[in-house]
Design goal:
The structure holds two protein chains of two kinds. Chain A is mainly α. Chain A has a domain at about 65-130. Chain A has helices at about 5-20, 25-40, 70-105, 115-130; strands at about 45-50, 55-60. In chain A, strand 1 and strand 2 (about 55-60) form a beta hairpin. Chain B is globular and about 50 Å long. Helices cover about 70% and strands about 0% of the residues of chain B. Chain B is mainly α. Classes of the chains: A mainly alpha, B mainly alpha. At the A-B interface, helix 1 and helix 2 of A face helix 1, helix 2, helix 5, helix 6 and helix 8 of B.
């Protein structure tokens, strides 16, 4: 270290002492200024959490660089959720179709009657007459 | 990105030095507080999402710009401009007190308890000498040695060449040594 640098470092230690003995009102105003500034820090948007998994597990915009495993788990959970929802929805649809088929087959009227235009016209005519 | 805690810790670690830097430059506590507050606000708003490692340099750039803006506004209000070059001293004027400077840590006068008063006096004289430095020399000296930026970072914060930083730092150190020596203080 050069003598110039040594001298400079020595002076900076004296300056450090000046920051430690700063007036309390100034220190308080600095703290308040810091709090105001922090309130203006942009908040990460689009973060998702799994309840009970220990807070935020992934930031959708750019990911969590410090915890790639958390990001992976979050994406995996999301995909699993989508798959379950898709399967459940398909199951409901199949049950509904099954009920319609059973009703059609159990009816006295043969299913082909619903495809006959003449029968449909007759049905409409009679239902109006019934009203 | 920097978390709220990380940003808070960073600001807490630099706010006092930032305030002092601004005071040395503008010599007005209220104006210095405004400068520091604006700088903190700008850092949080515009760069709050940047990695923590980038914050020191970004903050110093913002702070130095805020100080320069204050100078400009003051000059406009006063209706005249101060030639900064008029405040610069030529190298020939220095007797180079650093050449004879000997720093002996074991015999540091501030290390002994009765020296507290001397230290306070030295601090006052040093702060006065810093205030009297040309702005660019003071800026370079404080960024390089007090904030601990390297030469490249200091040059980036000051928007000048690395050669200029070295020159400013050297001149500042010599000027401070001369100012303190004139008051009978030899570190």
């Amino acid at each position: 270290m050069s003598s110039e640098e040594q001298f400079a470092r020595h002076l900076c230690r004296v300056l450090d002492q000046g920051t430690r003995t700063i007036d309390t009102s100034i220190a308080e105003r600095l703290r308040a200024a810091r709090e105001r500034a922090l309130a203006h820090q942009p908040i990460a948007v689009g973060s998702i959490s799994i309840v009970g998994a220990g807070g935020t597990v992934a930031h959708l915009g750019g990911g969590d660089e410090k915890h790639p495993l958390r990001t992976f788990i979050a994406i995996l959970a999301l995909l699993l959720g989508v798959c379950v929802a898709y399967y459940w929805n398909g199951f409901d649809q199949a049950t509904e179709n099954e009920e319609i088929d059973s009703a059609l087959l159990a009816d006295e009227l043969p299913p082909n009657a619903y495809l006959d235009r003449g029968f449909q016209a007759w049905l409409e005519k009679h239902s109006r007459a019934g009203e | 990105m920097a978390s709220r805690t990380e940003l808070s810790d960073f600001l807490a670690s630099v706010e006092r030095r930032a305030f002092k830097q601004a005071v040395y430059a503008v010599r007005d506590d209220d104006a210095a507080l405004d400068i520091v507050q604006d700088s903190m606000m700008r850092l949080a708003e515009k760069y709050g999402a940047r990695p923590v490692a980038e914050l020191p340099l970004l903050f110093q750039r913002i702070l130095q710009n805020a100080i320069r803006d204050y100078y400009r506004r003051s000059r406009t209000r006063m209706g005249h401009s101060i030639s900064l070059s008029a405040l610069e001293s030529s190298e020939d004027e220095y007797a180079d007190p650093l050449e004879t400077l000997q720093i002996d840590e074991e015999h540091n006068p501030f290390a002994t308890p009765p020296a507290a008063l001397l230290q306070a006096e030295t601090l006052n004289l040093l702060e006065e000498a810093l205030h009297n430095l040309p702005p660019r020399q003071r800026e370079a000296f404080l960024l390089r040695y007090w904030e601990g930026l390297d030469i490249a970072e200091t040059a980036a914060a000051m928007d000048c060449s690395e050669g200029s930083v070295k020159t400013h730092c050297s001149r500042a150190a010599h000027a401070l040594a001369a100012a303190l020596a004139a008051k009978g203080i030899r570190p």
